[in-house]
């Protein structure tokens, strides 16, 4: 693995603050105090530290990934989480208020927004069903049929030591809002600064589970670095990698976007890895790693046959 001269690398802790930090910095620089002097943002102030991507590993552990994502088992598991956070009395009370008139909802998730009649519909029916036109085979096109396009699969000519990184969310995360440090779907607990790799790639790169590495991205001759990620063996395709965002946002330059949508290429990042000199490897449970690698993800039957 190639180790880069850090003086030529844009580092995540340094020049690559996330968007929240930049917005606050720009707003404060534009604002003037009463005497006309410009206000500057102290990078060590509490408001600044809250807006920076976390760089500490915490007490990250690997455990058995949960098998439940829907149905009664998922409701039961969610209730257990609620009891753990709110107690035996408050958790059921909160669950009974979800998507009810006298309770609370997830705006634009439980129903489309705006909907002037949603309260009346909830009062009448007691629940709200979000219609799915495609499920009913309703397509609002000139022909009344779905319009599909065929697109070639892009080819990525990776260098021998390169991987293709995709960024993902954890279970305890909604968009960029992080509610907790657990990801029960993937068996990650008490931390988020991990990188998922295929076990064969880990062996080929002479790395090991729990080893701390720095991630380097490569785009248009520019190298960026996100430090201190623990390696987790996972059932992922060869030459692929996955890590949580916003911790890895620093790896994507503003110019790296999808060809037509102009969206940041957070799902397609060329990276290399280098051992970090910051701390010793973590000790993950080999039993839980094997369980997560071998578990069979259930598939629903195809209703169309």
Please tell me about this protein's structure:
It is a single chain. This protein has helices spanning 19-30, 46-51, 71-86, 90-95, 118-125, 199-204, 286-294; strands at 10-11, 61-62, 163-168, 173-174, 177-178, 188-189, 194-197, 212-219, 222-233, 240-244, 269-275. With 305 residues, the protein is α/β, with parallel strands linked by helices. Among the domains are: 71-125, no CATH class; 160-294, Barwin-like endoglucanases (Beta Barrel). It has a six-stranded mixed β-barrel with strand order 3-10-7-9-8-11. The chain has a two-stranded antiparallel sheet with strand order 2-6. Strands 4-5 form a two-stranded antiparallel ribbon. Strand 8 (212-219) and strand 9 (222-233) form a beta hairpin. The longest helix is centred in the N-terminal third of the chain and has 16 residues, at 71-86. It is globular.
Named at the architecture level, the CATH assignment of the domain at 160-294 is Beta Barrel
Helix and strand string, N-terminal first? EHHEHHHEEEEEHEEEEH
Beta-strand residue percentage? 15-25%
Poorly predicted ranges (pLDDT <50, ≥5 residues)? 13-35, 47-51
CATH topology of the domain at 160-294, by name, is: Barwin-like endoglucanases
The total strand number stands at 11
User: Could you report the average pLDDT, rounded to the nearest whole number?
Assistant: 77
Tell me the strand order in the biggest sheet: 3-10-7-9-8-11
Name the helicity range: 10-25%
Could you describe the largest sheet, including whether it forms a barrel?
6 strands, mixed, barrel
* Helix count, DSSP H or I runs of 4 or more residues: 7
Oligomer: single chain
Task: Determine the N-to-C terminus distance.
Answer: 48 Å
Q: What Rg is obtained from the alpha carbons, in whole angstroms?
A: 23 Å
- Determine and state the CATH class of the domain at 160-294: Mainly Beta
Shape: globular
- Decide which structural class fits the backbone: alpha/beta
């Amino acid at each position: 693995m190639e180790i880069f001269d850090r003086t030529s690398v844009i580092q995540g802790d340094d020049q690559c603050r996330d968007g929240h930090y930049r917005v606050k910095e720009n707003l404060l620089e534009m604002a003037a105090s009463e005497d006309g002097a410009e206000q500057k943002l102290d990078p060590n102030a509490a408001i600044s530290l809250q807006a920076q991507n976390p760089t500490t590993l915490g007490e990250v552990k690997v455990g058995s990934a949960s098998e439940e994502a829907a149905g009664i088992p998922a409701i039961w598991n969610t209730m257990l989480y609620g009891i753990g956070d709110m107690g035996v009395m408050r958790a059921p009370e909160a669950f009974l208020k979800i998507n009810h008139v006298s309770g609370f909802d997830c705006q634009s998730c439980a129903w489309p927004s705006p909907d002037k009649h949603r309260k009346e519909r909830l009062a009448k029916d007691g629940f709200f069903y979000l219609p799915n036109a495609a499920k009913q085979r309703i397509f609002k096109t000139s022909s009344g049929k779905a319009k599909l396009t065929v697109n070639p699969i892009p080819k990525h000519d990776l260098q021998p030591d390169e991987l293709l990184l995709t960024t993902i969310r954890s279970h305890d995360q909604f968009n960029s809002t992080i509610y907790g440090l657990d990801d029960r779907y993937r068996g990650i607990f008490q931390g988020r600064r991990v990188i998922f790799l295929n076990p064969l790639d880990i062996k080929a790169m002479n790395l090991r589970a729990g080893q701390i590495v720095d991630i380097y991205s490569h785009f248009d001759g520019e190298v960026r670095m996100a430090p201190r990620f623990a390696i987790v063996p996972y059932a992922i395709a060869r030459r692929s990698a996955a890590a949580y965002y916003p911790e890895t946002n620093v790896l994507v330059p503003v110019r790296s976007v999808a060809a037509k949508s102009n969206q940041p290429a957070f799902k397609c990042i060329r990276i290399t890895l280098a051992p970090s000199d910051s701390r010793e490897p973590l000790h993950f449970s080999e039993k839980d790693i094997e369980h997560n690698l071998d578990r069979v993800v259930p598939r629903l039957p195809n209703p169309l046959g």
